[in-house]
Write a structure and sequence with these properties.
There is one protein chain. This protein is 36% helix and 14% strand. It has 4 helices and 6 strands; from the N terminus they run H-H-E-E-E-E-E-H-E-H. The protein has helices spanning 8-24, 29-48, 107-113, 127-130; strands spanning 74-77, 80-81, 84-85, 88-92, 103-105, 119-121. The strands form 2 sheets. The protein has a 4-stranded mixed β-sheet. Strands 2-3 form a two-stranded antiparallel sheet. Strand 2 (80-81) and strand 3 form a beta hairpin. The longest helix has 20 residues, at 29-48.
Length: 135
């Protein structure tokens, strides 16, 4: 059975449902009795321990100096494959084609990176044009 809810109200509802199914169908009664016992155990545990509020959801911190749409900032995207890494791709921070976890870089770092043959500019956002680099 999947993880049971921690509160008594939902556990009681699950228990009532399981007991009704046991009464209706004896062929799966053994399985449902086992589930019922698991719910009873969880219910006893839920009623013994005080309910604590769930921990707040942790969000990834944003990089304020490289926020999307911030003019003059760029990101580098590295792709790893089973055959080894693919060429890195430079994007503008507001590009919608970024995949994975991009790493922020400054304009002079993007310009220097684009001179490397193993690094490509994004064909969609064209950071090379924005940086004044022509092929």
């Amino acid at each position: 059975m999947a993880v049971l809810p921690p509160d008594a109200r939902r556990l009681r509802a699950i228990l009532a449902y399981l007991e009704a199914r046991i009464a209706e169908n004896e062929t799966v009664g053994i399985y449902l009795r086992l589930q019922s016992d698991a719910v009873r155990t969880a219910l006893a545990g839920a009623e013994e321990t005080p309910r604590t509020p769930p921990a707040p959801e942790r969000r990834r911190p944003t990089l304020p100096s490289f926020a999307p749409g911030h003019p003059g900032t760029y990101v580098v995207q590295q792709k790893r494959t089973p055959d080894g890494p693919e060429p890195a791709v430079i994007h503008t921070t507001d590009c919608t084609m970024i995949e994975g976890t991009p790493h922020p870089i400054r304009p002079h770092e993007a310009r220097a990176a684009l001179t490397d043959p193993n690094i490509e500019p994004c064909a969609f956002c064209r950071p090379d044009s924005e940086l004044g680099i022509l092929d």
